[in-house]
UniProtKB/TrEMBL annotation:
InterPro entries hit by this protein: NAD(P)-bd_dom_sf, SDR_fam
UniProt entry tagged with the keyword Oxidoreductase: yes
Lineage: Bacteria, Candidatus Zambryskiibacteriota
Single annotated GO MF: oxidoreductase activity
Protein's UniProt name: Polyketide synthase
Family listed: Belongs to the short-chain dehydrogenases/reductases (SDR) family.
Keywords associated with the record: Oxidoreductase
Keyword Protease in record: no
Domain of life of the organism encoding this protein: Bacteria
Length: 257
């Protein structure tokens, strides 16, 4: 897909580490101009500094907290100022680092839903006026196989990702008349430095190895680059008739029909 995205203007929210970072660089490799959002200013500055060496002038970003309502419009204005429009929005916002029980307080439910559902929904709401002016405008959202399968994942995270899945399917129909495609990717067990699977493997190397080899048909972890390539496939103009799609990137773990 080299240079397939030349001239494209891409906003990656949650793009400073792991999957988001791989997505941002994949678009840059494809020729796009990329604006990255992240909460951690130090990580964001480090990422931009590293990537600007390779892709001079095509990468910028801003630090913002998408749990704060005012930050959505600030983010979109900053992205639009750098990109001069938005063709592709990628939401890699969210966190699976949460208590496993479903017996949560109202405050805890609000926290997990804000991180894994509302932030993406409000981002799309704010971005829609920019996207409808773009070229082959589309949105790719990061879900999780936990939102479509019953797994040993935190209940709140599972519910939030299931809501996100339903939201994308509904919004793909609503935004079609505005020429905006909306698709969702459900990563499986993706390993990267600083991620949840690194923590789990460090805690129980043998148990983790046994789990991956027993539940994942490909018998391995996925990488952020695996997910990034799936994002590029859905964001590509070649996928112009694909909207409302749900794509699992999980080495064959999902068994839904």
């Amino acid at each position: 897909m080299t240079n397939e995205f030349t001239g494209k203007k891409v906003l990656v929210a949650g793009g400073t580490g792991g999957i988001g970072k791989a997505i941002a660089e994949a678009f840059l490799v494809g020729g796009a101009r990329v604006f990255v959002q992240g909460r951690n200013l130090q990580k964001l500055e480090k990422l931009i500094s590293e990537l600007d060496v390779k892709y001079k002038g095509n990468i910028s970003g801003t630090s913002s907290n998408l749990l704060i309502a005012e930050d959505f419009s600030k983010l979109l204005d900053a992205a639009n100022n750098f990109l001069d429009g938005i063709d592709v929005l990628v939401s890699a916002i969210g966190s699976g680092k949460f208590k496993k029980t479903g017996l949560l307080t109202q405050e805890e439910w609000s926290q997990v839903m804000d991180q894994n559902f509302y932030s993406t929904a409000l981002l799309l709401n704010t971005a829609a006026p920019f996207l409808e002016k773009g070229l082959d405008s589309n949105v790719v959202v990061m879900g999780s196989i936990a939102g479509i399968e019953r797994l040993n994942a935190p209940v709140g995270y599972t519910v939030a990702k299931a809501a996100l899945h339903a939201y994308v399917r509904a919004m793909s129909a609503e935004l079609a008349s505005r020429k905006i495609r909306v698709n969702i990717i459900h990563p499986g067990n993706i390993y990267f430095e600083g991620g949840r699977w690194e923590e789990i493997q460090d805690e129980d190397p043998a148990g983790t190895k046994n789990y991956i080899e027993s539940v994942v048909p490909q018998r391995r972890f996925g990488s952020p680059e695996d997910v990034a390539q799936a994002v590029l496939a859905l964001a590509s103009p070649k996928s112009s008739f694909i909207t409302g799609a749900s794509l699992e990137v999980d080495g064959g773990q999902s068994v839904s029909f």
